[in-house]
Specification:
alpha/beta; Rossmann fold; Dihydrodipicolinate Reductase, domain 2; 2 domains; five-stranded mixed β-sheet; three-stranded parallel β-sheet; 7 helices; 8 strands; 29% helix; 26% strand; Aspartate dehydrogenase domain-containing protein; Asp_DH; aspartate dehydrogenase [NAD(P)+] activity; NAD(P)-bd_dom_sf; NADP binding
Amino acid sequence: EADLIIEVAHPSVTRTYGEHFLSAANLLVGSPTALADEDTERRLRGRAKLSGYTLYIPSGALWGGEDIMKMADRGTLRSLKITMTKHPSSFKLEGKLAEKDLSAIQERTVLYEGPTRQLCPMAPNNVNTMAAASLAAHTLGFDKVIGVLVADPSVPDRHLVDIEVTGPTNETTGLVFSVTTRRSNPAAPGAVTGAATFGSFWSSVLGKMFF
């Protein structure tokens, strides 16, 4: 008997076994790119509601996730864009993105820019931060949160996550509320995950989760 099941293997595990897990225990999805699939998210939320167990999403490398969710809750979140920059050797890509010859990249190259729903299945191991953000920004979701994936040979020792948030416009001044952050996470050459991500994930396990 378990109180909490933690998935940290691959989004396919959650897609295949998530409902079974939620029938027996709470589930923390360490690969939230799985929820970019609408059917998977619907099935898991439905099972959690029926079983009484909770579906948790860890913050991972997402900086400011709680603030993004608060803005969504208040209806003040207008847009969210996340740019992830890594060395080409740090990517594990699938689908159309797997056709790119990453070893041939000699300068900063944008691999993808668009809704996170289409990106998540093509980079399931690399963009869990974007998936977590898409869930926190629930008024925008995977279809309106914009993800940008960048391969840059000049950053072999760290992963960069730039987050751009916009909120409401002041009716008097016309000025727009905005927040921009950059997270520079040291990482070993070729590593999919940065060094600080484990600590963030562990904090989520201890209780700081989205839902």
